[in-house]
From TrEMBL:
GO CC, alphabetical: chromosome; nucleus
Coiled coil segments of this chain: none
InterPro entries listed in its UniProt record: DDR_Repair_Kinase (IPR050517), FATC_dom (IPR003152), Kinase-like_dom_sf (IPR011009), PI3/4_kinase_cat_dom (IPR000403), PI3/4_kinase_cat_sf (IPR036940)
UniProt cross-references to PROSITE patterns, sorted A to Z: FATC, PI3_4_KINASE_3
Location(s) in or outside the cell: Nucleus
FATC domain location: 223-255
Segments forming domain PI3K/PI4K catalytic: 1-240
Protein name per Swiss-Prot or TrEMBL: Protein kinase rad3 putative
One GO term of the biological process aspect: DNA repair
Length: 255
């Protein structure tokens, strides 16, 4: 909620995604950090990212699915866990993009090792505050190669996309309730946003108008699009090499 107030809940049977993916990638991470750490120009950061990915893709294959399978060795449990993973990823990806949830690095996304569901933690970076960081966040949610690795043969175009569409339909149907609750949150003095006018003034678009626009299905060109088209655009934005290359190196956009 802010740096001084918050709620704590124990997330049982969970493990950070970072521990499932990053442990064997220390050398690659150091190499990438050295490559981009001192580069402040966004365009040059993107170019360096593309160069690194093109040169390293054969040494950086996704490995999350392999580690995921170790948690669910029984075949039918594995299938159900992968379904839970895809559905929970879709829910949090769409909801997160609607409320402007940022800071989705690999320690803020957990895997439930009992059922395969994804659990998100640390919701301080709400309402697109990530857009005013020293290195602005440019993706609507985390959908890197490792996150896609567990979706199955159709990757992000299968169950994940179908569920994203369902979630957006549900959110649109309940937009009046969502906007009302969000407006109440923004007026709450315990919420960091309410006490930080300078931060709020730097956001290109105020939260409530932005909620209304997104929940109405209005795209960047001002067109009203279907839920599926909206989901596809958000997925494309999350996968965009230009967007990922612009992210802070500690977010590990290549993993």
């Amino acid at each position: 909620m802010s740096e001084e107030t918050g709620l704590i809940e124990w997330a049982s049977n969970t493990i950070p995604m970072k521990s499932l993916i990053v442990e064997s990638r220390t050398k690659d991470i150091i190499t990438y950090h050295k490559l981009v750490a001192k580069e402040g120009n966004q365009r040059k950061r993107v170019d360096l990212y593309k160069k690194y990915i093109l040169n390293s893709s054969y040494t950086l294959p996704p490995q999350f699915y392999s580690n995921f399978n170790h948690s669910f060795p029984i075949p039918h449990h594995q299938i159900k866990a992968r379904e839970n993973y895809s559905k929970s990823m879709a829910v949090m990806s769409m909801v997160g993009s609607i409320i402007g949830l940022g800071d989705r690095h690999l320690e803020n996304i957990l895997l439930n090792t009992k059922d395969g569901n994804i659990v998100h933690i640390d919701f301080d970076m709400l309402f697109w505050k990530g857009e005013i960081l020293p290195v602005p966040e440019t993706v609507p949610f985390r959908l890197t190669t490792n996150m896609i690795d567990c979706f199955g043969p159709q990757a992000e175009n299968g169950l994940f996309l179908d569920m994203c569409t369902v979630v957006l339909k549900t959110l649109r149907h309940n937009q009046s309730v969502i906007i009302s609750l969000t407006d109440s949150m923004l007026q709450n003095p315990f919420i960091d946003w309410a006490n930080n006018e300078s931060s709020a003034s730097q956001i290109p678009e105020k939260p409530i108008p932005r909620f209304k626009r997104i929940l109405s299905g209005i795209d960047k060109l001002g067109r009203v699009v279907s839920e599926r088209s909206q989901a596809e655009q958000l997925i494309n934005d999350a996968k965009s090499v230009d967007n990922l290359g612009s992210m802070f190196q500690g977010w590990l956009p290549y993993i």
